[in-house]
Amino acid sequence: MKLKADYSCTLRNRKKGRGWAGILFLLPGLVGVSAFVLIPFGDVIRRSFYTALSGQFCGLQNYTRVLKNQAFLLAAKNTFLFIIVCLPILLGASLLIALAMYSFTYLERYKALYLLPMAMPAATIVLVWKLLFAKQGFLNGSIGTEIDFLHTEAAFFVLLGTYVWKNIGYTMVLWLASLKAIPTELTEAAKVDGAGCLKCFFYIILPCLKGGLYTITVFSFLNAFKVFREAYLVNGAYPPEEIYMLQHLFNNWYINLDFDKMAAGAVLAAVVLGSVAICLKRLWDKEEN
Amino acid sequence: MRQQKGKRKYLLRLLVYPIIVLLGVCFILPIIFLLSGSITDNIEWQERMTALLMDTKGYIEWRWIPDYPTGEHFKRLLFYTPAFMKLFWNSIKIVGLILVGQLLVGVPGAWGFTAFRFRGRQMLFTLYIILMLLPFQVTMLSKYLVLKEFTLINTHAAVILPAVFSTFPVFLMYRSFTAIPKELLEAARIDGAGEIKTFLFVGLPLAQGGIMAAMVVSFLEAWNMIEEPLAFLQDKALWPLSLYLPEIDIAQAGFSCAASLITLIVSLFVFAIFRDSLEQGILASALKG
Description:
heterodimer, A: mainly alpha, MetI-like fold, globular, disordered N terminus, B: mainly alpha, 14 helices
């Protein structure tokens, strides 16, 4: 009995002392992150309260200028629109393919085909897209129209397609992993109880997938901003209105040295994205418990 | 009843298999296009692309196998374009250093988050996620200011250092570290292993798959990065390969195809080598979610 008491005592003490060791492991990362991200961002927050040219303190003036700026409102609207359209499409399509691969394991060997688009450099995609979507391009050629997909509002759909094409492989693999984690006893028990395929899906599979949904949503959200690369390479700094996004705006402000507007815009964007991340995390933590 | 179900599954198979396979093949058509385009000589390209280049009516023609296949583009690229080789090695250097840096900084970081409990752990992790979600343009200004302070603008360090301290790999690796059962860690501690030994001999081997997966994703990110070098490297001699491609004019389509193919081959190579670890790692990282 005495030994047991000693033993647990030791464990408890070790637990207390352990915490700070974690910080040591994180230290190099933290130093770098602080130096390259946190502290400079603090400086940006400071800058958002001063004008760029004269360096005078101007309170919330930059913020009001940004919020009233037409370009900012357009870019924010487009970025928001793009995300709420592209995320469900990507998640739905990749889930469908993952389900197909889960039900018919023969199909898994074709996973690689879906993963390859992720490896293509943006400039290459742009080259192929130029030939595919130009007015005289292959797509128009095969259906006999003359739509300039890249320089009109159709560019939105080209970007959407690019996003789905690039990310469907990785997202599908994540779904597949979550699907495989569902204990087969559950589905088998349901089938024994007479549940058809559809019922199985809605009452067993979907709820079990909620766990993986957080990771998948975070990644997909992250990748939604990356379509900027293809958009920029095709249309430059001033693309058609419909695809003018926040990244374009910030890029232009950077080039034009509009640092005060950029600072205010960056703080606003960080606040919005931060709240989204926190909301998502809360939802996920709730699910976990 | 059973016969009906079997028949239904067979019909479903008949429908789903071709869709998935054909869709997969469609997804990699751009790569096949590159292959065929890179061995088509300039004269044939000119013939087919007149509509696009002259901006007249009509469409680009295409033949998957050129009438006169040629290796002239590859010859020109590899032997007569010193710029290409210089940028190629730039990319190798940048990406290599980024990956090494991320391993040294990110892996202990992810371990710090998983294996220890300290005050503010959740908050710090949420902060890491927020930082990860911010698109480059939001932190672009702050990074520029810090890099200017350290006079790193226009050196490779300007691109390497921020990437090394990116919180994205930490997030990717965190998930596979949490898959390690706590009992193993406890057992190691009871056996007298210090923190570092536990990390090196228990944590690392078990999370190997996740670390590899994170490195492959990081490699693809770094190999194809466009915004960072564009913003921080003014000297074209310092550019990575990913920025060479956009510089090639579309009239040089064959050459561009060849250059794209070579850029792509490196990614495909990495993909092929680490495919199994990649899937294993993604599996591990999705499960805990």
